[in-house]
Amino acid sequence: MNSKMESPRGPRPSELRRVPGIDYGDLESHFGYALRRAQIASFEAFYRASAGAGITPPRFTALVILHANPGITQTTLGNVLGTARSGAMLLTDWLEERGLAERRSRADDGRVWGLFLTVKGEALLARLRRRVRENDAAFARRLAPRERSSLIRLLNKLAG
Amino acid sequence: MNSKMESPRGPRPSELRRVPGIDYGDLESHFGYALRRAQIASFEAFYRASAGAGITPPRFTALVILHANPGITQTTLGNVLGTARSGAMLLTDWLEERGLAERRSRADDGRVWGLFLTVKGEALLARLRRRVRENDAAFARRLAPRERSSLIRLLNKLAG
DNA sequence: TATTGTTATACTCTATAACTATA
DNA sequence: TATAGTTATAGAGTATAACAATA
């Protein structure tokens, strides 16, 4: 791991742990609140796994998508990530500056770039994938095996 | 509802819907990704319910907490919301400027404010609570009744 | 005309650090 | 000394709008 950490400032996952003596009202019965709490907990787990590489969840998603869909355009990447074109551009810049991805011009359409992971990008993804998976598994260990598959299924059903 | 909408710009929940023809790799099997997708979907539902009032999920949480814990301090509110003191301050300012909450000095400790909802704040909370609950229920209708209680239980177990 | 990538700009959220008043 | 609130500042993320090149 590199000892030079990126972005020591800026938004990191907050704690959102229970504060003793506080009455949370009916918050616990809301799906929105329960999802928010669980997602923040999972963010924490992710950051522990990817600390030092500067890889956030959206960036990790971009690496996975580029690996599985070589030659994808920036606009499509933005659609997958749910961001505007300009955001996909900044993300692509970030990856390219670090030599993780590259833009290649495409003969069939002069307007678009095809995006590809570099060898370095593929290597980082392979390393991260292992650690993220381990961390995801460790995080999920709070549940019984049957509960885990049940939760994934329910979440995907809920997300539509 | 007021026709004057707040913050027409700025971050709103993005879509993050499946893009046809894209290979998502093993993203679906990650808890982090499934949680993120489900949470964004629930954000969308929340924003539909609270559109126009400028109430975000953290602000709604603050209203609920202030209602259930009258006289709470800003620092404690920040702990509940998982934000720094300065963030709790800005949130309190926002609520106070709109006449939803007020700061009262406390005789026992000159350093702190006691925070309270105003009559207007209580009224807004009552209205929002109904609509948020309805929307939460509509959102959850994608699941069978037994699945809903199961999901809430699993999420809370996961969040710790 | 419509779309892609780009650039410029603005806004929200939230963190850190230093300051003041009080404990 | 420690803590609450405050203020100032900075940074990340992301949106909108306008522009040039290409379809």
Give a written overview of the molecule.
Two copies of one chain form a homodimer. With 160 residues, chain A is mainly alpha-helical. Chain A has one domain: Arc Repressor Mutant, subunit A (Orthogonal Bundle), CATH 1.10.10. In chain A, 56% of the residues lie in helices and 6% in strands. Chain A has six helices and two strands; from the N terminus they run ααααββαα. Chain A has a two-stranded antiparallel ribbon. In chain A, helix 1 (31-50) packs across helix 5 (119-140), helix 2 crosses helix 5 and helix 3 (74-81) crosses helix 4 (85-97). At the A-B interface, helix 1, helix 2, helix 3, helix 5 and helix 6 of A face helix 1, helix 2, helix 3, helix 5 and helix 6 of B. The structure holds a DNA duplex (23 and 23 nucleotides).
